[in-house]
Specification:
SH3 type barrels; mainly beta; globular
Length: 144
C-alpha cells in the first residue's frame, strides 16, 4: 500500500492542470522579484528611473545625452583590490571608462551606485544598453 500523504506533498490537490507558479522572477515566498523593467529588482533602478532607489524623471536620470567621447582615457595600473563604490559614485551621470578584472574595457554611463554594484548604460557598438555589474569585477575606471 502506498502512502498518499507523501505523494500529495509534491502535487497540489485537484490533480494539476492549474497554475503552479510563482516561478522565479515573479516574486512570492522564496523567489526573487523580477528583473529590471518589471519595477521590482532590488538594488537596480529600472531604466528611466522607475525605482524609488534610482533617479526619478526630471532628476537627470535616463540614457546619456549622446555617444561617448572618441578616445578612451589612459587607466591607472590594475589593483588587487576591489573598486570602492564610494569612489565610483563621483562618476554618476558622467562618461566613465571601465576595465574589468577579465581585461574587458568599455564606456559606461553610471546612473545608480549600490553597496556592491553599479548600474547605468554600457556602450555597445553604436548604442547605449542598460547594464549592471558588481563593483568587485571592476579593476579600474576613469570618468571624464
Amino acid at each position: 500500500m502506498q502512502d498518499h500523504r507523501f505523494i500529495s506533498s509534491f502535487f497540489p490537490p485537484g490533480g494539476g492542470g492549474g497554475s503552479i507558479g510563482p516561478f522565479p522572477g515573479q516574486g512570492g515566498p522564496g523567489y526573487p522579484p523580477g528583473p529590471p523593467g518589471s519595477g521590482s529588482f532590488p538594488g537596480f533602478p529600472t531604466p528611466g528611473g522607475g525605482s524609488s532607489q534610482g533617479p526619478q524623471p526630471g532628476q537627470g536620470g535616463g540614457e546619456p545625452p549622446g555617444p561617448p567621447p572618441g578616445n578612451p582615457p589612459q587607466l591607472q595600473s590594475v589593483s588587487a583590490f576591489a573598486v570602492d563604490p564610494g569612489a565610483i559614485r563621483g562618476c554618476l551621470f558622467r562618461y566613465t571608462y571601465l576595465r574589468l578584472n577579465n581585461g574587458e574595457q568599455f564606456w559606461f554611463y553610471p546612473t545608480f551606485v549600490g553597496r556592491h554594484s553599479v548600474a547605468g548604460y554600457r556602450w555597445f557598438i553604436f548604442r547605449w544598453v542598460y547594464f549592471g555589474i558588481d563593483t568587485r569585477r571592476i579593476s579600474a575606471f576613469q570618468c571624464v
